[in-house]
Amino acid sequence: MFGEDDIVRSHKGRADLIFNIVVGCFIIILIRLWYLQIYKGDEFYKYSVQNRLRKETVKAPRGMIFSRNNQLLVQNVPRFDAIIVPQYLTNKKETLSKLSKILDMSEKSINSILKKNAYQARYRPVIIKKNISQKEVAVIETENSKMPGVSVQTFIAREYADKEIGSHALGYISEISQSKIRTFRDRDNYDYKLGDFIGQAGIEKNFDLDLRGEDGYQFMEVDARGRMKRLIGGKNLFAGIENKPATPGDNIRLTIDRDMQRTAYESLEGKVGAAVAVDVNTGEILAMVSRPSFDPTEFSRGITRERWNKLSRDEHKPMTDRTIQEHYSPGSTFKTFTAIAALEEKIVTPTQEVSCPPTFRLGRRVFHDWKRNGHGPTDIYKSLRRSVDVYFYKIATKLDIDDLYKYAQQFGFNSKTGVPLPREIPGLLPNKEWKLKKTGEPWQKGETLSCVIGQSYVLATPIQLAMAYATIANGGKLMQPHLIKEIFSSDGTIKKKFSPKVVNTVTVSQDSLEHVKKGLYQVVNHRKGTAWWYRGRGIRMAGKSGTSQVRSMSKKELFSRCVDMPYEDRHHGIFVAFAPFDNPKVAVAAVVEHGCSGSGAAAPVVRNVTETYMKKYEPELYAKYSKEDKEYARKIYLEEKRKKEEAAAKKKLEEESE
Questions:
Q1: What's the rounded Cα separation, in Å, for the pair 658 and 655?
Q2: Is the peptide bond before 330 cis (omega within 30 degrees of 0)?
Q3: What is the pTM of this model?
Q4: Read out DSSP for 292-346?
Q5: Under a CB-based contact definition with an 8 Å cutoff, are residues 246 and 255 in contact?
Q6: Which of 169, 560, 567, 614 has a CB 3.0–4.6 Å from the CB of 622, allowing a cystine?
Q7: CB-based contacts of 282, cutoff 8 Å, min separation 6
């Protein structure tokens, strides 16, 4: 038999083991408690506090855009969106039923939006309806307690002060789609996120990274249903949890003059076309409009599919920037550069007269002048003043197309201007090499006859025409057009400043330029100039009208009334000018599609824009010229009156003698 001592001894080892295990467990628990409450206490306390908080992104206000005179063109305004946070959507059926009535949406469409965003985390808000009304905001806020998970989110939207005016140059922003977010990240080396807006056109696109700023975040205390109780400021209970304020984007000051921009747009009322005005000495763009246009604010607020389809399918292409994305046969506005080439190549002298009958024959083909009876003896000045086709046809027989190319390309034809806007096209200036590569056929002499008057292969954008004439006006310096004067931060610090840039100095004599400028002056200011009736007062502009045929025409069609033709067959009207003639400051180009004539359709646009410039920037000169023009007009009126009276008196004497 074992005694009690033996029994105790036999269990002692087991008891010691159990004791050690229990002590060890307590030690482990104590160590874990020390680790959780002391070593990691602050960190886990912060986590526990954050379970009561919701972290929300604070979008950075996008930089604003100003005119050259500091007028606000693009600003930020609040937009309200109805959102649902799926994590807190406890009574889904009842909540969606109430929300559908408030937003005037079907429950099915709300459910569809939630399913479409089901891939993202449940704590992320889902936008149900963008840009809701103040009434809808008020009702949602009032009914918030009965709709867990539903709230209103404030978003900073973009507002364009002048709506359609100049929208192509300004551009627009829209939300990044899921399919393109990776493309944009790789392109810009920037961590874009879903819900971010990005510049999609114009300045908004090309200067997106300057304008966008840096997002911040803030914490807010929420209840069990996700409803906000208060914003957190990082004190007391929530010490150590700090909000990060958003950094606003940089602002941009443009070279655009708002008054000239508005004048150009209004002058194109009811027309399809474009207008560009530039400072001839700096290349600054003063006005740049394309019409028809669109309101970029719609894109910022969330454009509907129906509205987008209407814009994209419109036959007049309102989304296309005609100033840089459409090229046209420049028509007679190109004769200016043919004249320069002819003078430089000594094919004609300025005062040399060339006989110009109604037609010109080359081989078996007959080329017609625009005037049925021809123009008779013509020198370089009259050739521009009256836009004499036959004069240039005769030049074309002696002018090699490569020589024309050599001179015209110096004025910017066949190249992009370098304006800081996306999707600019270069136009076209042909030569022998180009045609051989394009068609495999050699250049024909008859093709030169069409090119010298700005038809056939020759194509140019309105901004190219404006820069080319600015080059003539300033004495031969081809400037790079630019839209931005400076980029500056919200506190006024200048980040970038843009200076004039000379792209090319033409190798053309000043004599040739002066002779051509004299001819351009007569186009507008000579009583038989093609633009005499559209010269205006007080501006003293020099320029050239052009009629660009959209298709080949028979002799009968050539001399028929353009306005009687079907709209799509009518000629484009083009006019380019600079002013004031004695000391040029501004050059303006306008194109009116199917406008029939440059003088009748496009010249009034150029005149109005130039007049706005003169009134604003050269008021004393404008007043002086206006007075002189008025006196000159009265002199002409009295002279015409005298001639009529003499003719009437002569006729009366003849009748009495009979």
A1: 5
A2: no
A3: 0.85
A4: S---THHHHH---HHHHHHHHH-TT-TTS-TTTS--B--GGGGHHHHHHHHHHTT
A5: no
A6: 614
A7: 479, 500
